[in-house]
Amino acid sequence: MNDFFYETFFDEMADSGQQDPYELRLRLLAGSPRHKTLLEAVADLSGGWKRGPFAAEDGTRRARGVAMASPFGSEVATIAEVSLRDGEITVHDVWVAIDPGSIVNPAIIEAQMNSAVALGLSSALLEEVVYVDGVPQARNYDGYQILTPDRMPRVHVRIVESGAPMGGIGEPGLPGVPPAVANALSVLAGKRVRSLPMSKLDLKEVDG
User: Fold this and answer.
1) Residues pairing with 90 in the sheet
2) In what order do the strands lie in the sheet with 61-69?
């Protein structure tokens, strides 16, 4: 949850200073080659950074958000491409660049990143435990919303080996997803997203 706070507040600071959040991160990381390389890698993987809003080929109006995280000795940079229509949030693509130091099996890393994106997006958009008078309202699995397969975005992964000590792989892909999505949504909605799950928020697309 700390990465959600850090990375969304970073974008708020960038906006207050009329700075592009990706370019500001890049400048501040000039003295940290490992992080700078990773941020450049995720931008390259996504076809080049563009915040938006912009029109996609299918006519939807989209924006992108970026976030970074340093979980379990690994370093991760994430970009999410999002649209917002009639209050409905759609995450179309998520790009993840991960530097776990050194690797053994790249196929396992890619699979873990896919599952981490699914978990991160599920928690960002839908998952919520509601209590009334100390009693949870979801009494069984069917009362607890999770991400369905039809809402799963395309996931693109790039592995960057820095030669640092080997880090974790199980959870590192997750923390960057909620803030990347929130940062993209803030562009489309014209206001900051500061709470989860996002499906509970009254978000409407704004022009400009």
Assistant:
1) 83
2) 54-55, 61-69, 75-85, 88-99, 154-159
Mode of pairing for the β-strands spanning 88-99 and 75-85: antiparallel
Domain CATH code at residue 50: 3.30.365.10
Beta partners for 94? 80, 155
DSSP readout, 149-162? GGGPPEEEEEE---
CA 176 – CA 113 distance, rounded (Å): 11
Number of domains in the chain: 1
Place of tokens 């699995």: 141
**Cis bond upstream, residue 197 (ω within 30):** yes
pLDDT score at 207: 66
Distance of CA 32 to the CA centre of its chain: 22
Residues 100-142 pLDDT 10s: 988 889 999 999 999 999 999 999 998 878 888 888 887 777 8
Indicate whether 53 belongs to any domain: yes
* Cis status of the peptide bond prior to 53, with omega within 30 of 0: yes
Residue 63: inside a domain: yes
Q: Does residue 184 belong to any structural domain of this protein?
A: yes
Domain of residue 153 covers 2-192
Task: To the nearest 10°, report the CA torsion of 30, 31, 34, 37.
Answer: 10
Burial class (CB in 10 A: 0-12, 13-18, 19+), 70: middle
Q: Is 198 within a domain?
A: no
Quote the tokens at residue 59. Answer: 């006519």
Amino acid 193: pLDDT: 87
